[in-house]
Amino acid sequence: MAKPDGVDRGLIGEIITRFEKRGFKLIAAKLALPTKQHLEDHYGDLKEKPFFPGLITYMQSGPVFCMVFEGLDAVKTGRAMLGATNPLTSQPGTIRGDYALAVGRNICHGSDSVENAEKEIKLWFPEGTLQYKLTQASMIYE
Ligand code: IDP
Ligand code: MG
Q1: What is the pLDDT of residues 82-134, one digit of tens each?
Q2: Using an 8 Å Cβ cutoff, are 45 and 133 in contact?
Q3: Cβ of 51 less than 6 Å from ligand 1
């Protein structure tokens, strides 16, 4: 997901491009203005953290752009492409390492486990995703 700062800074295309070029297949995408309740469900595991209220305010400060990418080890590789949560330690070459400075404005969200990815896809895309084949699949997978 491109967070409100990612959308505002014109990074939707950049984020999609990075995942497309890596070989991932986009199977759902949309702009959204989530409610407070929706974001509290999304970040439910962080409810007790001191930064939680600020996180919800930040996430409601503008539209987010939600994407589902499919492919080999999508969660682990996707998280590596995002970079560490705190841009202070995000490696250059990662999205956060190239475009962010502050942990509370770190551009993007990515699911941290397959289980959470499945939950988040259901939460953000109740309408489902689209299944199709990339003609170049045999050039991406052996
Ligand atoms: P993640 O986004 O890398 O999975 P989480 O620990 O799940 O990191 O935290 C969710 C989001 O909460 C982070 O991406 C960041 O925007 C925000 N956040 C995490 N830790 C802090 C903090 O210490 N201060 C302010 N915001 C934070
Ligand atoms: Mg997380």
Answers
A1: 999 999 999 999 999 999 999 999 999 999 999 999 999 999 999 999 999 99
A2: no
A3: yes
Spell out where the chain has E strands. 25-32, 64-70
Distance set, CA 6 to CA 84, 88, 107, 131, 137 (Å): 16, 17, 4, 27, 29
For residue 43, the CA-to-ligand 2 centroid distance in Å is 8
Q: Phi and psi (nearest 5°) for 70?
A: -115, 145
Amino acid at the residue 48: E
Please give the Cα distance from 13 to 115 (Å, whole number): 27
CB 100 within 8 A of CB 87: yes
Residue found under tokens 């199709």:
132
Of 97, 109, 119, 123, which one is the catalytic site residue?
A: 109
CA nearest 9: which of 140, 105, 76? 105
Is 109 catalytic? The answer is yes
pTM of the model: 0.98
